[in-house]
Amino acid sequence: xxxxxxxxxxxxxxxxxxxxxxxxxxxxxxxxxxxxxxxxxxxxxxxxxxxxxxxxxxxxxxxxxxxxxxxxxxxxxxxxxxxxxxxxxxxxxxxxxxxxxxxxxxxxxxxxxxxxxxxxxxxxxxxxxxxxxxxxxxxxxxxxxxxxxxxxxxxxxxxxxxxxxxxxxxxxxxxxxxxxxxxxxxxxxxxxxxxxxx
Length: 198
Hints:
This is Superoxide dismutase. The structure is a single chain. By secondary structure, the protein is mainly alpha-helical. It has helices spanning 19-44, 58-81, 91-101, 104-117, 163-166, 170-179, 183-194; strands at residues 121-127, 132-138, 149-156. Strand 1 and strand 2 form a beta hairpin. The chain is globular, with a radius of gyration of 18 Å. The model has no long low-confidence stretch (mean pLDDT 96).
């Protein structure tokens, strides 16, 4: 299995989202998920399998914590990788968005509404079963995800992502997030995912 490595922030600064927020979000929170993911996976190597139990066992606790930490890492990877410029959507991702929702503005309105409704994440995903884009929401890293759906673009709506800069105005944060999307990287990821079919 390929060893996971911590990813540096792919941008220096964002418009409207402070360096302080990004430093706390990336260098402390995201880095903490990476550390815990590695720690949990190391502990799993020595867990006693004979004591596995659905009510409680060390294996059950570690496997549950593993999904939280791993998804915390991967969702944040895509979140940070999708930021860094105010470029306009283009290419295959834009065509698929327009095919699915009619216009980019319709997609943007739905993505924002999903971000307002979720407690943790709104995720634009490529559904490998249905071969189409979907927006899924999750209240925790390990809740709300759909197996067979690959995250193309992730919107972190936990308070840590915006509270320093926007207070409780999540809507203003989401609008600012849209203005900072790096559509070249999103397009590149989408082209890879679109080839996947189940």
